[in-house]
Design a protein that fits this description.
alpha/beta; 502 residues; 14% strand; eight-stranded mixed sheet
Length: 502
């Protein structure tokens, strides 16, 4: 009897000391239902070890009276916990904490709070988020984002609603093609043929969540650990990080006024096997220079001779203000090894995550399979809406409108740079894009410079992020696309004031 009495005390003493309403933290103002509140409180007490295995719970009437709720509410809470295996019922005995639960005392939330997981993970390093302004900054010379105030939101919104209201809309709400909306791929095929100078079969185009996803897919399909990959220096930091994380040996080739140095590339090809080269030939990132025709031809010849892939990132092709169009590398008959990537993020807005990629058939077949694994499909409705806007000419009209605006901002940028920084810098007016590249005529401590600018509520992209070794040189990239006349004028004046404080 003593043993039985001791077990009885262990099982029942805890809830006999005080009413349940003082034990359970039930809130009648919570977003949760009362049933969820009661069930959650019981689970919490079990996990803390204060309600042990086999402990008896009060009858539904008694607990309902104690908590001031309807008896059915308690019954529903008990039923939910029983269904999940937290509680169990015994014939003519009542409701108890399940005997099948493990011992909970060692798993209390207090002990787990500061405990780290004990399994190994692959560590990924995030590339610098240089397109995101710091809190409180007024003027941000970003990497070259478009002005979201110019985005055709009304037109896009109307197109989106039209797609939803259209007969047969239900087909777009289910699972679709992993390559993306067919109409958008058909429109892209015509667009690439007309504006970029090459034909891509709609079946060989894959729509992605922005160009960043396209780059990731391409790298995962193409690159194996130990492969040598060439990037531009200075260049796009995110792609260097991506290749490094995959395990590639990333090597950089310097960029001059005509783009990446092809002589150096050829020398490297003679010495080692190159798997791929990442290049931004239209408006080199970050220096904005355009790769000249001679280098383009030689690059394609080397790709054929040495069998390496060319990843062409055509991130802002629409914004070309010069006389020539400078068609994509993919437009050449020699472009058998070229993978082409672009997106709508620069044309419409960064939040419109719709990019696309096309390339050799074998490569695309594997990439499309991978895309289906990591993300079953994109936003069918959004993709179809963009296709409608391409078809009815809205995208074309918007492009012509903003090209005119950005050309004017580019010219203002050049004017204000000359007026405020004058002999302190070397600068060429870019033939396209949404950013300028300037170089100081003396060595600058960019860390101090950025601190000075931040005090003036101005932000620039850290120049060191563009270089493989992380060390800044003399140049910096200044995005002008997202700044209006007044913001450009004030911002560049503050850039000059920041230099004077060094």
């Amino acid at each position: 009897m003593d043993i039985v009495h001791k077990q009885f005390k262990q099982k029942y003493w805890w809830h006999m000391i005080r009413p349940w309403k003082t034990i359970f933290n039930i809130s009648f103002d919570s977003e949760k239902t009362i049933v969820e509140e009661i069930a959650s409180s019981i689970r919490e007490e079990i996990l803390k070890g204060r309600l042990e295995r086999g402990a008896s719970l009060p009858g539904s009437r008694a607990l309902a009276k104690d908590l001031g709720v309807n008896r059915k509410t308690v019954v529903f809470a008990y039923d939910a916990l029983i269904a999940d295996g937290w509680l169990e019922t015994r014939y003519k005995s009542g409701t108890f904490v399940s005997e099948h639960l493990p011992e909970m005392k060692s798993l209390s939330a207090e002990k787990l709070k500061d405990t780290e997981s004990n399994f190994n993970v692959r560590e990924f390093v995030s590339a610098p988020l240089t397109e995101k302004p710091f809190s409180g900054n007024v003027i941000f010379f970003n990497e070259g984002s478009p002005d979201t105030r110019l985005a055709p939101l009304k037109e896009l919104s109307r197109a989106y609603r039209r797609v939803l209201d259209r007969q047969g809309k239900w087909g777009l709400l289910g699972y679709g093609d992993e390559r993306g909306d067919l109409k958008l791929r058909e429109m892209l095929s015509m667009f690439l043929s007309r504006d970029r100078g090459f034909y891509a079969d709609p079946g060989q185009i894959c729509v992605t969540k922005g160009s960043q996803m396209a780059l990731y897919l391409a790298a995962m399909v193409l690159i194996c650990p130990g492969d040598t990959v060439i990037v531009e220096n200075p260049g796009y930091p995110a792609v260097r990080t991506l290749f490094t994380e995959i395990g590639a040996e990333v090597k950089a080739i310097e960029v001059d006024q005509e783009g990446i140095d092809i002589d150096v590339l050829e020398s490297m090809c003679k010495k080692e096997k190159i798997k791929a080269l990442y290049v931004t030939p239209h408006h080199q990132f970050p220096t904005t220079v355009t790769m000249k025709a001679g280098r383009r031809i030689r690059l394609l010849e080397l790709s054929i001779k040495y069998g390496f892939a060319i990843i062409e990132d055509d991130y802002d092709h629409e914004y070309h203000f010069g006389a020539g169009n400078n068609l994509a590398l993919s437009s050449s008959e020699m472009a058998i090894n070229v993978i082409y990537i672009s997106s709508f993020s620069k044309l419409i807005a960064p939040a419109i995550r719709v990019g696309y990629i096309t390339g050799p058939q074998k490569f695309m077949r594997s990439l499309i399979s991978l895309r289906a694994q990591i993300d079953r499909q994109g936003d069918n409705i959004l993709e179809h809406a963009i296709a409608d806007l391409m078809e009815d000419g809205t995208i074309g009209r918007h492009s012509r409108k903003v090209v005119s605006i950005y050309r004017a901002r580019r010219d203002l940028m050049a004017q204000y740079l000359t007026e405020s920084l004058g002999p302190m810098i070397s600068h060429h007016t870019p033939v396209g894009g949404l950013a300028s590249w300037i170089e100081f005529n003396r060595k600058i401590d960019f860390n101090k410079y950025m601190n000075n600018l931040q005090k003036k509520q101005v932000q620039i992209v850290p120049p060191g992020t563009f270089y493989q070794d992380g060390h800044s040189r003399f140049g910096m990239r200044l995005g002008y696309g997202s700044l209006n006349d007044q913001e450009l004028k004030e911002g560049i004046k503050l850039l000059a004031d920041g230099i004077s404080k060094l």
